[in-house]
């Protein structure tokens, strides 16, 4: 599990840099200020939690179910939270908002919160 957590931490961190640059350069001229702000929120939360994954991967032994759940909550939570925001922003910008992504964002946020709570309980 440790290798999975570290791999996703590095992957999500790298993608956060790419998406941040994409938003700042390619989308800045095409998105409204509100949409760009939402996109940036997705990038920030992705980076924060990528760093949390890396730290958890370095500090936790992942020897029990709770510690494994920390990793999965962050991995899945990042994907659902940030990537649903990206999808909502880009599809809204193109005039065809994918409304089904709306409920996905808070579910991802709930998993991120659960990851932090499980992390607190596991240390």
From TrEMBL:
Membrane topology: Multi-pass membrane protein
Record-linked InterPro entries: DUF423
Keywords, sorted A to Z: Membrane, Transmembrane, Transmembrane helix
UniProt-annotated location(s): Membrane
Gene Ontology CC: plasma membrane
Principal location: membrane
Transmembrane feature ranges: 6-27, 47-63, 69-88, 100-121
Family: Belongs to the UPF0382 family.
Alphabetized PANTHER family for the sequence: TRANSMEMBRANE PROTEIN 256
Protein name per Swiss-Prot or TrEMBL: Membrane protein
């Amino acid at each position: 599990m440790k290798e999975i957590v570290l791999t996703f931490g590095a992957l999500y961190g790298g993608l956060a840099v790419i998406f941040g640059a994409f938003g700042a350069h390619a989308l800045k001229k095409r998105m409204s200020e509100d949409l760009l702000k939402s996109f940036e929120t997705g990038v920030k939360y992705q980076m924060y939690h990528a760093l949390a994954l890396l730290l958890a991967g370095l500090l936790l032994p992942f020897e029990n179910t709770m510690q494994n759940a920390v990793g999965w909550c962050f991995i899945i939570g990042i994907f659902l939270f940030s990537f649903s925001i990206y999808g909502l922003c880009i599809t809204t910008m193109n005039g065809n908002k994918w409304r089904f992504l709306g409920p996905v964002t808070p579910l991802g946020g709930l998993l991120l919160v659960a990851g932090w709570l499980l992390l607190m309980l596991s240390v």
